[in-house]
Amino acid sequence: MNIESNIKNEIKRINDARGRKIIVLDDDPTGVQTVHDIDVLTRWDQELLREAFDAPESLFYILTNTRGLDAKAAERINREIACNVHTVADESGRSFTLISRSDSTLRGYYPLEIDTLSEEVRRLSGRGYDGHLIIPAFFEAGRVTYDNIHYMIENEHFVPVHETEFAKDKVFGYSNGDLTKWVEEKTEGRSHALECLVISLEQIRKGPEAVKEALLEAANNVPIIVNVLLYEDMDVVSLALLQAEEQGKSFIFRTAASFVKSYAGISDQAFLGHERLIARGQEGHGGIVVVGSYVQKTTRQLEHLLTMPGIVGLEIQVEHILDPKGRMQELERVIAEANQQLAEGRNVVVYSSRELITGETKVDNFKISQTVSESLVEVVRSLEVIPKFIIAKGGITSSDVATKGLGIRKARVLGQAAAGIPVWLTGDEAKFSGIPYIIFPGNVGGDRTLLEIVEKIERKS
């Protein structure tokens, strides 16, 4: 047995023996893009949390959707979850670990969410964390960290994330790709770059013991930057973390999706085949693709999808839905056409017009974004024909379609349709129960990936 297999087996052994729950607070629905056969909750009331604590799996997700909300709402939701989780954990006598899963291109509410969770856990338990690990690597989509610089791999080129369109985000933008300096920027100087604890690639490749010794030095919730290029590196870090925790250390995590798979010991699984991407009994209907993301990658993917023979593109004009007088007329037009085309067996793409309309402030931009998302949700909510599949493109869009459009309370993660593209099975309570819901992140895939998934469903090459 090779070293990598030994490390994976030891990770699984420790997790099985501890019996604690690993709870991932996911700021949009795309974070389950590396796991399978686990539950994701879209609510966090104590009754639903008890179900999750009673389930046999050691891991579950809670969809918070905080990346699509304002800062006050994000803080409130994280406090509510921490309080309810602590109550249910106390009742069950089980320990838990919190992972704040966010974007692999560094967008989201850091340090707000880590600060809020850490404060609430300290208030409720009387114990603080020794460190919070920052691990934005997401290998499936070509996101890696080396010498503290976080990169996107595009066409075999390593591009620092601060040089990409994602760093110019209207709400979560930043100027530093060096994660130590990014921490200083985001904390507004509260945590100085030189104060960060760095886990280097050189340390990792000496093995778990070297990493564990570094982690044992952590104190006072220090930011811990982790450099990783491969899952083998991540597995070394995960084992070292588990061993350090067994020696009394306590950590909280701000990570992308790859860390969860490694730390929780989730096995590999092949991409889902055609038969698991289509709803049984609905083969005669069309499927629907809902596109809200405005990043350039999504727009290119949409353009390719619209070239597919027989597919019907329905564009929602954003300037019309921002006008209270024109909104309902625009939506009624799209809804009527979507229902007719689905009933006749044609696949439909509903998408917001591609010209990005922005306001003067972050609050204005949030309102515009929410209005667009609410309009896409209204289309899904008004469907009278059960589609044979649903694809939602973009984090905010996919979250709102799941919770507001489909009414999902709890879903089962089946796996992935392609690298980094998760598939949920909707629950009994959903508007359309037992159908595949494909969540396509805005920043994942090549230009043809969206087209290729629809072709896979239709068994076309």
TrEMBL record:
Keywords: ATP-binding, Carbohydrate metabolism, Kinase, Nucleotide-binding, Transferase
Regions crossing the membrane: none
Domain called Four-carbon acid sugar kinase nucleotide binding: residue spans: 288-450
GO terms assigned for molecular function: ATP binding; kinase activity
One Pfam entry name: SBD_N
Alphabetized SUPFAM superfamilies for the sequence: YgbK-like
Superkingdom of the source species: Bacteria
Coiled-coil positions: none
Keyword Kinase part of the UniProt annotation: yes
Domain Four-carbon acid sugar kinase N-terminal: 22-262
Entry similarity comment: Belongs to the four-carbon acid sugar kinase family.
Protein name: Hydroxyacid dehydrogenase
